[in-house]
Amino acid sequence: MKKSIAILAGGGPAPGINTVIASVAKVFLKDGYRVIGIHEGYKGLFAHKPDLFEFDFITCDKIMNQGGSFLQMSRFKPKDDEFRTDLFVNNNVKLLVTIGGDDTASTANRISKFLNQNNISIQNIHVPKTIDNDLPLPEGTPTFGYESAKEAGVKIASTVYEDARTSGNWFVVSAMGREAGHLAFGIGAACHYPMIIIPEMFNKTRPSFDRIVNLVISSMIKRKILGIHYGAVIISEGVFHFMTNTEIEATGINFTYDDHGHPELGNVSKAHIFNMLVQRKLKELDINIKSRPVELGYELRCIVPTAFDLLYCSLLGIGVKKLFDEGKTGCMVTSDPKGDIHPLYLKDVEDENGKVRPRLVDVECQKSELVFKHNMHYIHEADYDAARHYVKNPEEFDLNKILDWYY
């Protein structure tokens, strides 16, 4: 039987998936392999009648620069007893290529161990995908899709900021991101937003809605002191993952949870929740500031990839073939800033439960410090006298006291 490789995509879409699929397929087709695409991610991989697609060069050429994913995706996370060897054996599969984020990578890690234990000689190489940029790749190496999503987010966030300036209002923007705030930080810093709020900022205290609201209002008051009567804040939705159920329920919003135990934040507007809480607090303080919510989420995931991701994803796809030829397995393919391909073994980045550890924003590095200390607007001790014109207790809105920082 002709040798083949199988490709699947898990989780949510990110710009560049089709570029990876096309690049992987082309190099293997050139070497005489069948290239089988599996629809519905891991659900399809272990289905009794999987929905498969056999790639040819023409199809790859058509999809290589398109947004979205030619292969239907799924967040399905199989249990260990659902693992099967049928598809691998029946199609003479020599390589399984998985495309996805931390959950997909963690499942790929479990599959590698399963195949090993069953003496199935199949290599497994993972391609790190997520607009959240939260996979533990080497320093300076983004996950694919992040740069394209950030660029699209910057265009929207810049327009929102111009609207704030033009209308004399404020906007409360929420950006996608689970535990990590890379996307919100990248967009907010690029657009000179006077307040950026990400989960990693709460490294010395616990995130809460009260603290988040006070940080937003701190920026609003500081801008008033500076004579600037407009602005925008950006908040990573990842802060929700560190809230207690009691706090979340207190917002008046009922959340559902996905198969991985994550709150299904896509069912509600996080920006609306944050803005509603800010408006409540402003009313209590008798401060007349209008603010409007804007959500940055699904509109970023299926855009056409930028030139950065088109090249980067092509290198990752070709890099899969390089690692395969070298006999590598149970690893992620990485491309460093020079374009050199390296394996990152999943066993080296997993926690005690076998889950891939997320990469967080380093809030103590110089880049973060420059943005937080010099580019954001918030109350500090020197502003207390001026701030008392708006609030009785300015220290409650002092970023350093809220976060227990010392900028």
CATH topology of the largest domain: Rossmann fold
- Give the overall pLDDT as a whole number: 92
Low-pLDDT sequence parts: none
Assign an overall shape.
elongated
**CATH architecture descriptor text of the largest domain:** 3-Layer(aba) Sandwich
Beta-strand residue percentage: 5-15%
Q: Briefly, what CATH class of the largest domain? A: Alpha Beta
Report the total helices. 14
**Which strands sit side by side, in order, in the main sheet?**
3-2-1-4-5-10-11
Helix content: 25-40%
Count of individual domains: 2
Order of helices and strands: EHEHEHHEHEHEHEHEHHEHEEHHH
What Rg, in angstroms, do the CA atoms define?
23 Å
Q: Main sheet, how many strands, which sense, barrel?
A: 7 strands, mixed
Give me the count of strands.
11
Distance between the termini: 65 Å
Structural class of the secondary structure composition? alpha/beta
